Please model this.
Amino acid sequence: MAKEISPNQSKRSTAFELWMKAPNPMVTFFKTLDVTPLLRISKKKKLKFNMLFDYCIGKAAADIEEFYTLPVGDRLIQYDTIAVNTIVKNKEGEVSSCDILYNSNLREFNRDYLKYTAQVAETCENRDLTDSMVIGTSAITNTEIDGAVGMNSGIFNNPFMIWGRYRRKMFKSTLTVSFQFHHTQMDGAHAGRFLENLQKEIYNLKI
Model:
């Protein structure tokens, strides 16, 4: 469920006043993650790496209050749930967008991920969850990248993550990610906590 709230009644009231009309309210952090555990689980359990990573993204964000409030247009919207977006190559060879509702149950999240990405690939129609706060993602897996900065459209204010191909070195695999967020939604401390949570969730993932 999504509902409009008064900025004055939100913890983000000062940020709303400072950043909603700023020329560029988007901030981007970069972090290199150790994704070795995800690759091991992916191979051992025959689960998609991207699904596992999306699950960890959702779990890392779920206990951070700021993720549930988002500036939309000139309003502040509060959500009850979080979803993670993934880009799908459809049957026409183009890309479509697919939102997956975060579920703390990994088996159920995997079921939904497989079901809806297959559906989007077949129909070539985007799946948008407008009642959830969506974390956007884009995986450019055909190359290694050191970082990427998303666009500031003034319309799409959702947090957004971009990554390329992971790097292997000896017995460790790393992945550099960029995390873009709207300063009205959260401060650097919240974004840093999210990225720290993400690494912890990767290390702690159990199947």
